Amino acid sequence: MRPYSTELLARAQTVIPGGVNSPVRNFKGVGGDPIFFKQGYGPYLISVDNQKYLDYVGSWGPLILGHAHPKVIKAIQEAVSYGLGFGATTPIEVEMAELITHHMPSIERIRMVNSGTEATQSAIRLARGVTGRNKILKFEGCYHGHADCLLVKAGSGLLTFAIPNSAGVPEAFTNHTLIAPFNDLQAVESLFVDFGEDIAAIIVEPVAGNMNCVPPQPEFLSGLRKLCTQYGSVFILDEVITGFRVGLGGAQELYGVTPDLTCLGKIIGGGLPVGAFGGKKEIMDYLAPNGPVYQAGTLSGNPITLTAGLATLKELTPELYNTLAKTTKTLMTGLKERAESAGLSFQTHQVGSMFGLFFSEEKQIVNYTQVARSDVPHFQAFFHGMLKQGIYFAPSAFESGFVSLAHTTAEIDYTLQASEKVFAWMIEHSLTVC
Ligand code: KE4
Q: Going from the N-terminus, what domains does the chain have, and what CATH number goes with each?
């Protein structure tokens, strides 16, 4: 029972669309009502009904240190005493830009913005401005925020122009968006043969984190790099999730691929609203005020946001990424063992401390079509079963989960013990056939 959450939802729905400020929060993906939370600390969330949950969402990725890390809180508390922002340049913007360009050498210049959506739509406008071309190529199942030209799905036929997947997006706004299956280099090569001279950019999540979690196949990213070089298109890596999540150098370091532009977000804001895009100097210098591509933001580079971001990034070391990966591997291995011994078909994907859970018999899940074949009712039963045990996974079978540095062996052990009960319950209630 969650009486206060229920009361708040009723109130919220009278003043906020769907009662939420972002759709995925409303539990439509898993059924039931969203939980209202009032506090986070370490790996835990506390609901308004004073129930404690072990959190594997981490605000959708930013909280790699866990909730309310003391050093982050202290840094913000000190910073706010000097004011909340000035709409003018501040030293911390330089410090953040120097730190990011140090860890990601492909980024020679970087512009801060306030969300991942702003970062990706600005990077696309910049790519179009630099190349003078119109088309962009994205991948089915990858999400880059809600810019009109990116709210698309595959149209009819295999190699397709995209069509809008949201009301309010005119066909004209997506006519220049091409779409291909993730991990399908051949499909991309065919699109370049047909449209290469007019493709301004490829934009891709190096690890797809918005269709559950799907890593790139070997040679996929390097193949995209080669095609962009061959055709003079801009190669944009959307590292809003993976940036500083899978390592200090992001997925571009992990997979040894050099983008022309990178989009960042989440962790670089330490949990506060943030985004950024950056890359080669000769591209970034096309941006206002130096160049003809306009982009702006009232609160871009806000000193409080960057204080939270820098305090977070300064805690991260290669050793801690190893710890995160080990903790996550223990969780993934333990869940898979327990699910399979209960008789369930269960797959896990992991890249560093981001992970994906699939109720599926398919051993190799590499694209959206396969993810969409996974058993969503099973995931929903798992989600709610674990929730009853006080464990909060992403309320959608099409999102990634995240482990933080605050998740210790005790939390992993508790999660695995709880999963045994939930998997057993799923079997008893004949949730067995995928
Ligand atoms: P925002 O505009 O929501 O800050 O960022 C958009 C975005 C861009 N690129 C990637 C790879 C992203 O994952 C996102 C946003 N991520 C989702 C969760 N996977 C945000 C959750 C939500 O929409 O509420």
A: 4-68+317-428 (3.90.1150.10), 70-313 (3.40.640.10)
If you measure from the C-alpha of residue 1 to the centroid of ligand 1, how many angstroms do you get, rounded to a whole number?
30
To 5 degrees, how large is the angle CA 266–CA 272–CA 277?
45
Residue 432 is predicted with a pLDDT of 46
List CB contacts of 91: < 8 A, sequence separation 6 or more: none
How far apart (Å, rounded) are the C-alpha atoms in residues 81 and 59? 25
* Candidate from 59, 117, 211, 300 with most ligand 1 atoms within 8 A of CB, to mutate: 117
What residue spans of 146-242 are helical by DSSP H? Answer: 171-174, 185-195, 220-231
Q: Is 205 in the pocket of ligand 1 (CB under 6 A)?
A: yes
Q: Determine the pLDDT at residue 163.
A: 75
Counting atoms of ligand 1 from 1, which one is nearest the CA of 273? 4
The structure tokens listed for 357 are: 């859970």
Ranges of the chain with pLDDT below 50: 158, 432-434
pLDDT of residue 298: 97
Distance 144 CA to ligand 1 centre (A): 6
Cα dist from 75 to 59, 72, 81, 150, 310, whole Å: 20, 5, 10, 36, 9
pLDDT at 156: 57
What is the structure's pLDDT at 68?
A: 98
Q: Is the pTM of this model over 0.85?
A: yes
**Does residue 143's CB lie within 6 angstroms of at least one atom of ligand 1?**
yes
